[in-house]
Amino acid sequence: MGVLGAVLRFTLTRIIPVLVLLVALVLGWLTTSTPIPEGKLFATFFPFMKGLWPATIVGHGKMPGTPPVPDDMKPEPRPENEMFVELPGGHRVPQNGLGMCCRPTAYDDVLAERTVLWYLLLGGRHIDGAHIYLNHKAIGRGIQEAIRRGVPRDEIFVTTKLWPSYFGYNSTKEIVPTWLDELGLEYIDLVLMHMPIHPAHAFLGTSKECNKLKLSKTECRQQTWKALSELREQGIMRNVGVSNFVAHQLADLTEMENVAPVSMNQMIFNPFLSSDWVEAAEYCRQHGIAITGYNSLGGMLQHHETKTVETLTGLAAKYNRSVAQIMLRWAMAKQVVVIPGTGNPDYMRENLSIYDFELSEEDVRAIDQLQKSRETSKKFFAMPKLE
């Protein structure tokens, strides 16, 4: 008992206090000079995952990645055969966009600005961002420089998202208009509720405002939707939608009266969906809600697995395309907007070139069948629904 007691005393008096101190320091750092601590955590995590020092620690402009845009580069033509998805409010969104999340270059302001400028000058026109990505200002600078070089603002479709920490009628009405200044825009094309509830809701509840008012999860979302609808009427944004909502959560909004239509549900979309997301996609189709798909290449940590799927590799060989291009074109054949993320101009060109070919109906059905293959689907991450 003597040795065990000594170990226990050492743990209680030395190790645990140090751990508590480290946790306190990390929490303090995360909450310093940032509106969303989770965003700072993500902006630190993703570069570290690639063996890079994040801008949150070493500052912006020190990370390798997206090359500078030549000073004399002018806008290239938009892709031939470009495709669009119509939204309920009468607007349309380019079906191929650029995701500004979940990779090191998205979290360095210098590289994020270059990324947006490259994409717009190469002919892309749809930028997908979010408040939690903490890169609104960098995105805005990239857009403004593209406009200065000749890209018309009315051709650019900008999406951003409201993080659940800001859910609630008053919180939403207060925070969303500030994004116009951050982005340097007179209006935002589409604002989404990022998730139906905070991923850590078991510990944090709904949001500060909704917790204070003792609103249920559903009531909190509905009050947020009411505020977004009013902001749309004021011209802050032209369309409103949601992200990561399953069918019954969508119904809680579509059944409301005197509010804006749900224009979009951004959700995981690839040939390996679980039943919850298959049902969500079907609900969207039945109710005229457009779909933007993320993880279209199988997931940010598992996209390499797609190169082991015989159906996909066979079609890539048949069309003389990459597996990534086959998967993106399949999603577009399902009338889904895709937003592959990259800071590499060469990959941007490759992604924009998917307008150049079309999958046959037979080949689309062959990819559809992958969802029914448990052997194939179990290789890929299944996004859990948030209740």
What does this structure look like?
This protein is an alpha/beta fold and 387 residues long. Helix 4 (109-121) runs parallel beside helix 5, helix 6 (169-175) packs parallel to helix 10 (217-233) and helix 13 (310-319) crosses helix 14 (323-333). The radius of gyration is 22 Å and the shape is globular. Residues 17-25 have low confidence and may be disordered. An eight-stranded parallel sheet has the order 3-4-5-6-7-8-9-10. Strands 1-2 form a two-stranded antiparallel sheet. Helix 5 (136-148) links the parallel strand 4 (126-128) and strand 5. Helix content is 45%, strand content 11%.
Brief summary:
This protein is an alpha/beta fold and 387 residues long. The chain is built from 17 helices and ten strands.
